[in-house]
Amino acid sequence: MIERRHLKLTASRACGRRPVYIPPATEDQFSTEQVDYYAVERAITGETPRPELTRDELREAALWLRRHGMERAVVSVHLSVYERLVKEWEADAGMLGPDQLCTVDGCRKARSGRGLCTVHLTADRQWRKAVAGLGMAA
Ligand SMILES: [Zn+2]
């Protein structure tokens, strides 16, 4: 176990370079058919000129960076997208643990507040408001 880990570290150090973005090779690996993978690659490397990215391209870049260990807050700044959106993409891609997902049964969205996703949190707030309204009317 230790030996294996050591080998892995040595190998990555021997390479001495950052992970390289490799676009999917076959069509079934594409998250959508509308993704310009050259644009995604440029967004990841930070090369200029930076093209305007579609939402699918931003998601592709964000998930790749997250999979390669970049902090969510850094990804958010790097790609100019909300941190919460990056987290939602991670939830959709099955990259979040159960402790980071909404606690409502069957909901697989990212947790936002009070153990709920934004959809269920909003519903919960509206429900509480409506109940409070009933209380005042009575
Ligand atoms: Zn939910």
Topology:
Blueprint: H1 2-15, H2 37-45, H3 55-67, H4 72-79, H5 83-92, H6 118-137
The chain binds zinc ion.
**Overall pLDDT score:** 83
Q: How many beta strands in the DSSP annotation?
A: 0
User: Tally the helices: what do you get?
Assistant: 6
**Hetero ligands:** zinc ion
Structure class: mainly alpha
Number of domains: 2
**Principal-axis shape:** elongated
SSE topology string: HHHHHH
Describe the main β-sheet briefly.
Answer: none
Q: Report strand %.
A: under 5%
Helical proportion? 40-55%
Whole-angstrom Rg? 20 Å
* Intertermini distance: 67 Å
Which ranges are low-confidence, i.e. pLDDT below 50, for 5 or more consecutive residues?
A: 1-15
Task: Briefly say what this structure is.
The chain has 138 residues and is mainly α. It has 6 helices and no strands. 54% of the residues lie in helices and 0% in strands.
Overview of this protein structure:
This protein is mainly α and 138 residues long. It has two domains: 2-95, no CATH class; 99-138, no CATH class. The chain has six helices and no strands. The N and C termini lie far apart (67 Å). The protein binds zinc ion. Zinc ion binds at residues 102, 104, 107, 109, 116-117, 119-120.
Features:
elongated, mainly alpha, binds zinc ion, disordered N terminus, 138 residues
